[in-house]
Automatic annotation (TrEMBL):
Coiled coil: none annotated. Its EC number is 6.3.5.-. It catalyses: L-aspartyl-tRNA(Asn) + L-glutamine + ATP + H2O = L-asparaginyl-tRNA(Asn) + L-glutamate + ADP + phosphate + 2 H(+); L-glutamyl-tRNA(Gln) + L-glutamine + ATP + H2O = L-glutaminyl-tRNA(Gln) + L-glutamate + ADP + phosphate + H(+). The lineage of its organism: Bacteria, Pseudomonadati, Bacteroidota, Cytophagia, Cytophagales. Keywords: ATP-binding, Ligase, Nucleotide-binding, Protein biosynthesis, Transferase. Allows the formation of correctly charged Asn-tRNA(Asn) or Gln-tRNA(Gln) through the transamidation of misacylated Asp-tRNA(Asn) or Glu-tRNA(Gln) in organisms which lack either or both of asparaginyl-tRNA or glutaminyl-tRNA synthetases. The reaction takes place in the presence of glutamine and ATP through an activated phospho-Asp-tRNA(Asn) or phospho-Glu-tRNA(Gln). This is Aspartyl/glutamyl-tRNA(Asn/Gln) amidotransferase subunit C. Belongs to the GatC family.
Amino acid sequence: MSTDLATLRQLAHLSRLEFDATKEQEMLGDLNKILDWVDQLRQLDTATIEPLVHLSHEINVLRPDEAHNTVSHQEGLSNAPRKDSDYFRVPKVLE
């Protein structure tokens, strides 16, 4: 399976990519190598192989999620460049 220059240019147009002439030839070679590799994978017999659901049999062991405040409300507002009583003041983003 190989791709020609016209197909590469069409793919570049759809991807909003621009190549000069030297890079175009380099990309064409790389794309053909990738497609050849995928074609080799396609030829493998995977009928007896079960689908892989997880990469390993390990199960995540996570600590319990415990909510706690590490910074008080006043400490959080102390470094704010602009504040209004209990709130941060930010520039208006919606009109």
